[in-house]
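User: New here, please read:
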Amino acid sequence: MTIERQEVGAMTMRAWDGAMAPYTSNQTVVDKVLPEMLHLIDAHWYQFPPMDPLWYSLLGCTIAVLCLISVTGNAMVIYIFTTTKHLKTPSNLLVVNLAVSDFLMMACMAPPLMINSYNQTWVFGPLFCAIYACGGSLYGTVSIWTMTAIAFDRYNVIVKGIAAKPMTINGALLRIFAVWLSSLAWTVAPILGWNRYVPEGNMTACGTDYLSKDLLSRSYIVAYAIFCYFLPLALIIYSYYFIIQAVAAHERAMREQAKKMNVASLRSSDTANTSTECKLAKVALMTISLWFMAWTPYLVINFAGIFETAPISPLGTIWGSVFAKANAVYNPIVYGISHPKYRAALYQRFPALACRPSAEENGSVASANTAVCEEKPAA
């Protein structure tokens, strides 16, 4: 009996030693990288042992699920908004543009990431690494600047009220063109020599080089963060600060007028609880908050690299990729929950989804995050 236990113990130790061999030997996370990719790998990553294959499997499965949800959800948003007559407004073109960028994010980025997760390294070579990273940066930048345009549209309608100049189809298309052009300029810059695109620490995706210590590389990360993260954030905060002020003033004026008339409320029953403006502001704020939740981890990783404020591990870079790409999933879900006319149109086309809006929602004048309000705040 004792001999049998010893044999079992020996077999267990050999199995354990075999499983832990990569972590106790000189093997690193870089070992599987293609030879033509090695010039892009920073020396920082050579200190890390190979990642547990389980993490690659989890990454691949997670991205596959997110891809399915995002591609399906955003395709429905694009289809509904472009084929439903009463949703074809200038403001809703911004919503469609947001859905297009989210759709492209997962449709283009997820399949290579799943293939690389299966192979546990980047297998497409240096050229596609740059194209892949440029695409991910482009779609993310288009997303945040589109949300900024949506915030300004809300500001124009709610804060300026009757004095606001309504947005036209040409005006919306011009804004969309400007968003794509400016975003493309920022994301092509590393390909032209201002910074560069390199494999990330987990070696399954590519992004900006935040480990190079030269001034040119660091300056791009800082400038990109300012103009594609902090500036949009500041503009959105500015817009919603005055939107909330206008909504509060409007609600206060309605309550005072109701008191003078000795009635409980001046609102009709379908909008007694919350104004249309407030509903729209909440939806847009939710969408934008989710965007910043998604991209902030990636910003933190980049800043930790250029300023050397915290150690960066290959496993940590996985979370940055997952959170960033998960942003493309949020918007269709937000629309489905809080967009009455979108839900009504979706129910008409796809009744099996059981997303029929309530009677109160059917009576609402809200059409989208960016639909033009029927109700104007008091001056």
Notes: Confidence is low (pLDDT under 50) at residues 12-23, 269-274, 363-379. Strands lie at 197-199, 206-208. The domain at 52-346 is CATH 1.20.1070.10 (Rhopdopsin 7-helix transmembrane proteins). The CA atoms of residues 154 and 370 lie 6 Å apart.
